[in-house]
Amino acid sequence: MHSTPESPAEERPLRVGILLPGETVPAWMERAIERTVAETNVEITHLVINDDADPDDLSDYLAGSFPGGVLEYISCSIERLRAHLLWSLTGVARQFAETPDYHEPRSIDSVAGFSGAKRLYCQPVPASGFGNLLPEEVAEEVGTNTDVVVRFGFGVLKGEFLTMPTHGVLSFHRGDLESYRGQPGGLWEFLNDEPTAGVTLQRISETLDGGEIIAERTVDIADARTWREVERRQIAVCEQLLAVGVRRLRDSTFEPTTPDSLGTLYTMPTGVNVARYVCKTALGKLCRDRQTRTRDGGQNHGERDVT
């Protein structure tokens, strides 16, 4: 059988760049990346690390320097309180509660596939209007030496960099783009008693949420009692979807799609919606705890009957 001219290119690993929020990543990102490295023919060639990232999770910054990381976290939290007072207050309880396993911080030094990658440290450059640009020299280095870039950090990206890698820049969106856009991912589906929530892996463009869909899944959340449970189910899908998307990029027959229309752009909840969240979460936890006690009590009763 004669080889075709395309064979060498098909056999060459896909060169992947990763945009990271800092020196640590949540465990789910680590698992998504390691799964992609294990299951697809890729080589991670570049890591672009935001060296000016705001603290987002207390446990992440406790894992860093002390007391510097804690002081930075407190400073950032004060700014968030000013901007979104009611919603930020609900976040206090979440931050000091037990960190879900998928949010546990992992050092990027421990991520399989990262050891041979070139590391570039930089800060995002504010774009005109909204969003961020990568510094020109970083964009040039990464954009011309990768086949695809995966965005896990640097916020809303704009600029020529989005089209420089062969297959563009991929990013996750926890929502159905035709129904729920914006943030926080999965929250508004939870508040509105939706039976499902979407997860989308998108090739992003300068149109907010308007890029091409590389892979998407629907997640059953009908019995999810809390927003955290919605998040857990969506993130479990994210861990699988990156490898699916990368395989599709190597498939010459694959055609990405674009949303027929874009849904409502949601933002951080305020006022009555914060109250709705607090009440729905409290009731959900109460129902969940009651079910747990009933189940455990039944098991214990059964054990007593046997003895």
UniProtKB/TrEMBL annotation:
Q: Which segments constitute the Formyl transferase N-terminal domain?
A: 144-234
Q: Which Pfam families match?
A: Formyl_trans_N
Q: This protein is called what?
A: Formyl transferase N-terminal domain-containing protein
The species is Haladaptatus pallidirubidus
Lineage in the entry?
Answer: Archaea, Methanobacteriati, Methanobacteriota, Stenosarchaea group, Halobacteria
